[in-house]
Amino acid sequence: MKPLAKKPSPAAVAALRQATALAPKRAKASDGLLPSAAHLIANPNSDHNTGLAFDLTHDPKKGIDAAECFIKWREDERVDYLIFDHKIWSKARGVRKYTGSNPHKNHIHCSIKKSQGDNTSPWFWWLNEPKAINQVKAKLAKKRKKKAPLPTAVCTCCVIHRPQKVAKGGKNGAI
User: Fold this and answer.
1) What does pTM read for this prediction?
2) Phi first, then psi: what are they for 22, rounded to 5°?
3) 52 contacts 12 by C-beta, under 8 angstroms
4) Which residue ranges make up each domain of the chain?
5) For 44-90, what is each residue's pLDDT tens digit?
6) Among candidates 42, 47, 53, 36, which has minimal Cα distance to 3?
């Protein structure tokens, strides 16, 4: 049995917090950090025990697509292995069929390398990039010419607003 951590790693906590910041209305039913008592019995060697794993609910309609994470996180140096939708990925073995008791269809499991447990850099770096079509539209858009500023209007309605002239007699406001 892997030793039971008292708290999850900063990297695991950051992943769930960043997901919620990007998609505040996302479902969280399958989110998880440390194991429950039932999970401990069923999976005594789980990386959840060490605090170096997290589960993230699959909710593409509200912003978190676990299928996309399964592909993108393969590039992330923190990731040891991923499980989603009957598939498991690790850098050493690539993608293969996952035959564990939980097929991970409603969430993605991410195990973090021990050396990366304190790394809280962005987990969803690709969600901050504009979509390719919007980048093309931006390049093709005509640059608008700046409009010349409107001239400042001078009020001539009354003595109060009209510039005052000094009359020959020396009194201000006399016309």
Assistant:
1) 0.72
2) -75, -30
3) yes
4) 10-129
5) 888 899 999 999 999 999 989 999 999 999 999 999 999 999 999 99
6) 47
